[in-house]
C-alpha cells in the first residue's frame, strides 16, 4: 500500500511495486484523473492497482483507506508512506495554518498511517517512509518547518523499527534530494548547478530504492535513513 501514490515519487513507487508483482493500493487526495490514469497504466501492463481517495490529514480517512485496501487485496505486505507537503517561508513569515498543516501531514499523518497499517501488515513485512535529505542538510532559507518535519520522520523510524522488530517487520526511511516532478518543475534549472552530478533525481530512481527496501534481500536493514540526492549533502 502506498499513501500518496498518484503522482511523482508515489506514482513511481506504485509502478515499480506493480512491476515487482505486487497488487498495489494507493491513496490520493486530489487529481482523480491522475489516479485513474495510473490504475489503467498498470492494468495495461498486466498488473493490478486500486486507487483510494483519502486525506492523510484525517485519521478516519486513513483508517478507512487501509480497510479498503485490505478488502481489495488482502493482508498488507508492504507500506510506503509518501504523503507530504512543503510550505516555504522565513521563520518570521510562517503562518500558524502552514505550520499546523506541515506538522499534520508530514509527521502526524506518517505516524497514523503506519499505526493504522500495522494490524494488517504480515509478519516479515516492510514499512518505508519518504523523508528528505534536508534532515541532514539545510537546503535553503525558508525550509525550517519542512526540515523539522523530515528530521522527525528520520527519528520516528528508529523507534518504530524497535517496536516492530519482534515481528520481523523492517522500517526504513528514504531521504531524497531534489527529484524531477511536477512540484519541482519551476525550480529544476536553479537546482541542477548545486548538484555534484549536475542533475536532479528521477522518480524511478526512488522507486528502485523502495523496491529494494521491500524485498527479501533487505531483511537485515531496519531503522535506517538512506539519502539519495546526487551528492547534495556531501
CATH architecture annotation: 3-Layer(aba) Sandwich
The general outline is: globular
Count of alpha and pi helical runs: 7
Distance between the termini: 33 Å
CATH level 1 class label:
Alpha Beta
Structural class category:
alpha/beta
What ranges have pLDDT less than 50 throughout 5 or more consecutive residues? none
Output the helix-strand order.
EHEHEHEHEHEHHE
Radius of gyration: 17 Å
What is the topology, as strand order, of the major beta sheet? 1-4-5-6-7
**Count of DSSP E strands?**
7
Tally the structural domains.
Answer: 1
- CATH homology group: NAD(P)-binding Rossmann-like Domain
Percentage of β-strand residues:
15-25%
Largest sheet: 5 strands, parallel
**CATH fold label:** Rossmann fold
Mean pLDDT: 94
What is the share of helical residues? 40-55%
Protein name: SDR family oxidoreductase
Family: Belongs to the short-chain dehydrogenases/reductases (SDR) family.
Pfam family, one: adh_short_C2
Organism: Herbaspirillum robiniae
Report on the structure:
- It is a single chain.
- The protein is an alpha/beta fold and 234 residues long.
- The protein has one domain (2-228): Rossmann fold (3-Layer(aba) Sandwich), CATH 3.40.50.720.
- Helices cover 42% and strands 17% of the residues.
- The chain contains seven helices and seven strands; from the N terminus they run βαβαβαβαβαβααβ.
- It has helices at 8-19, 32-44, 59-73, 96-117, 144-164, 188-191, 203-213, and strands at residues 2-3, 24-28, 49-53, 76-81, 121-130, 170-176, 225-228.
- Strands 1-4-5-6-7 form a five-stranded parallel sheet, with helices on both faces.
- Strand 2, helix 2 and strand 3 form a beta-alpha-beta unit.
- Helix 3 (59-73) runs parallel beside helix 4 (96-117) and helix 4 (96-117) packs parallel to helix 5.
- It is globular.
- The model has no long low-confidence stretch (mean pLDDT 94).
